[in-house]
C-alpha cells in the first residue's frame, strides 16, 4: 500500500505555502508571498499579511493540486502550521485546514512551523537519523534542539537570550541603510569584505557563561558593538567600510552558531547536525558549518536554498512524519499558538 497523501499548509508569516507529500516524496510545493508589500514599512504589517493569506490561499491550493496531478479527494490528512507565528496569519491557514479536513472527513495535524524547518530535510536527504542535533536559525529563532523522532521527541537545549540570528542581520542591515529585510543584503555585502578587518565580540563566550549558557546565544551585544563602531566612524566624518563591517559581523554570528552546534553534537554523542530556518541560507553559516562539522566527524544536513524560506513542504513533511509515528491527530478545536513551544511538534 502506498504512503498516505499529506496536504501541508504554511501561513505563519508572509508566505502562503501549500505542498503535497507522499511519505518522504515531495509532489508539489507552491508558495505565494506578500513580502514586497513591506519594503516601504521596513517590517511586516500583520493585518496586511493576514489579508494576503486570505487572497492567496485558494489559488495556491489549486496550483499545488495541479502540479501534483492530484485531486483534493485523494488527500489522506491535512497538516497546517499551528505556531509559532503571527496570530492573524496562523488563523487564516488553520481555518482553511480545518474546513478542508472537515469537508473531506480527514484528520488535521496542527504542526510546529519551526520543527518543520528540520523535517523538510527528509524530502531531500532521506530519513533523518535516529538521533541528531537540530540548529534552528530564522528571523524569530536561534535554537539548539536534541531530537529523536522528529514528531515525538524534541528537547530544547538552548536558544538566544535576545535577538535571533536573522533579526540581528536585519537590524545591522537597517543600521547600514540597506533595504528590508536586511539579512540577504548583509550576507551579499559580507562576501566582498574582510572578515578579520574588525574583531566584534562573541556573545556568551566568556568562561563563566560557557557552562551556564552552554547552548544559548546572545547577539544584542554584538549588534550594539556594530552600531557603536559605525557611529564612531560617522562622527569622525570617516567612511564606513560596509563590506568589512558585514563580513566581521557575519563571522561573529556564525562563529557562535557553529561552535555551539558542534559542541552540542559532541556533548550528546550525536553524529549528525541538521540546520534549518530562513537564516540557513546565509553563505558564511553554510561554509563554516561544513568546515567545522567535517573537522569534528559530524554529518551536516543543510536544506537547499529553496527550502530555507518558509514553505508548505516543511509542514507537509512534519505532518507526514507525525502520521508515520502514529501521533494522534489534533482535535478540531485546536487553536493557533503564536508562541508554540519547541518541544511540541503536534498540537494536542
Ligand atoms: O525562517 P524565516 O523565513 O522566517 C522566520 O520564521 O523568521 O527567516 C527569515 C530571516 C530574516 O531575518 C532574513 O533576513 C534572514 O532570515 N535571512 C538571512 C539570509 N536569508 C534570509 N540572513 C542572513 N543571510 C541570508 N542569506
Ligand atoms: Zn520559518
UniProtKB/TrEMBL annotation:
Kindly state what the record says about how the cofactor is bound: Binds 1 Fe(2+) ion per subunit.
Instruction: Say where the protein is mainly found.
Output: cytoplasm
- What is the similarity comment for this entry? Belongs to the KAE1 / TsaD family.
- What does the UniProt entry say about where the protein is found? Cytoplasm
Print the keywords alphabetically: Acyltransferase, Cytoplasm, Hydrolase, Iron, Metal-binding, Protease, Transferase, tRNA processing
Annotated function = Required for the formation of a threonylcarbamoyl group on adenosine at position 37 (t(6)A37) in tRNAs that read codons beginning with adenine. Is involved in the transfer of the threonylcarbamoyl moiety of threonylcarbamoyl-AMP (TC-AMP) to the N6 group of A37, together with TsaE and TsaB. TsaD likely plays a direct catalytic role in this reaction.
Record GO terms (molecular function)? iron ion binding; peptidase activity; tRNA N(6)-L-threonylcarbamoyladenine synthase activity
Q: Name one GO cellular component term.
A: cytoplasm
Q: Which PROSITE patterns match?
A: GLYCOPROTEASE
Q: Where does substrate bind?
A: 136-140, 170, 183, 187, 282
GO BP terms, alphabetized: proteolysis; tRNA threonylcarbamoyladenosine modification
Q: Which Pfam families match?
A: TsaD (PF00814)
Query: Which InterPro entries does the entry mention?
Result: ATPase_NBD (IPR043129), Gcp-like_dom (IPR000905), KAE1/TsaD (IPR017861), Peptidase_M22_CS (IPR017860), TsaD (IPR022450)
List the top taxonomic levels of the source: Bacteria, Bacillati, Actinomycetota, Actinomycetes, Actinomycetales
Binding site residues for Fe cation: 113, 117, 310
Reaction equations catalysed = L-threonylcarbamoyladenylate + adenosine(37) in tRNA = N(6)-L-threonylcarbamoyladenosine(37) in tRNA + AMP + H(+)
Cofactor needs? Fe(2+)
Gcp-like domain ranges (all copies): 25-316
Q: What is this protein called?
A: tRNA N6-adenosine threonylcarbamoyltransferase
EC number annotated for this UniProt entry: 2.3.1.234
Amino acid at each position: 500500500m502506498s504512503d498516505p497523501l499529506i496536504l501541508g499548509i504554511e501561513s505563519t508569516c508572509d508566505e502562503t505555502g501549500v505542498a503535497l507529500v507522499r511519505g518522504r516524496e515531495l509532489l508539489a510545493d507552491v508558495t505565494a508571498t506578500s513580502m514586497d508589500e513591506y519594503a516601504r514599512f521596513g517590517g511586516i504589517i500583520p493585518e496586511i499579511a493576514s489579508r494576503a493569506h486570505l487572497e492567496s490561499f485558494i489559488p495556491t491550493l489549486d496550483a499545488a493540486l495541479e502540479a501534483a496531478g492530484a485531486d483534493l479527494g485523494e488527500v489522506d490528512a491535512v497538516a497546517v502550521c499551528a505556531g509559532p507565528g503571527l496570530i492573524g496569519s496562523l488563523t487564516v491557514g488553520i481555518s482553511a485546514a480545518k474546513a478542508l479536513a472537515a469537508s473531506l472527513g480527514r484528520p488535521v495535524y496542527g504542526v510546529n512551523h519551526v520543527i518543520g524547518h528540520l523535517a523538510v530535510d527528509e524530502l531531500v536527504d532521506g530519513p533523518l537519523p535516529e538521533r541528531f542535533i537540530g540548529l534552528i536559525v530564522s528571523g524569530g529563532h536561534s535554537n539548539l534542539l536534541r531530537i529523536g523522532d522528529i514528531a515525538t521527541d524534541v528537547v530544547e537545549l538552548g536558544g538566544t537570550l535576545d535577538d535571533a540570528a536573522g533579526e540581528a542581520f536585519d537590524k545591522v542591515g537597517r543600521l547600514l541603510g540597506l533595504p528590508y529585510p536586511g539579512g540577504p543584503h548583509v550576507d551579499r555585502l559580507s562576501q566582498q569584505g574582510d572578515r578579520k578587518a574588525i574583531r566584534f565580540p562573541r556573545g556568551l563566550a566568556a568562561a563563566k557563561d560557557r557552562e551556564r549558557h552552554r547552548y544559548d546565544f546572545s547577539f544584542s551585544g554584538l549588534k550594539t558593538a556594530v552600531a557603536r563602531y559605525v557611529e564612531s566612524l560617522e562622527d569622525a566624518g570617516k567612511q564606513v567600510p560596509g563590506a568589512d563591517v558585514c563580513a566581521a559581523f557575519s563571522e561573529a554570528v556564525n562563529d557562535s552558531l557553529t561552535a555551539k552546534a558542534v559542541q552540542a553534537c559532541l556533548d550528546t554523542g550525536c553524529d549528525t547536525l541538521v540546520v534549518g530556518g530562513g537564516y540557513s541560507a546565509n553563505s558564511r553559516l553554510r561554509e563554516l558549518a561544513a568546515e567545522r562539522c567535517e573537522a569534528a566527524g559530524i554529518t551536516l544536513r543543510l536544506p537547499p536554498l529553496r527550502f530555507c524560506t518558509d514553505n508548505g513542504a516543511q509542514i507537509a513533511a512534519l505532518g507526514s512524519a507525525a502520521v508515520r509515528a502514529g501521533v494522534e491527530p489534533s482535535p478540531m478545536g485546536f487553536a493557533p499558538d503564536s508562541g508554540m513551544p519547541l518541544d511540541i511538534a503536534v498540537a494536542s
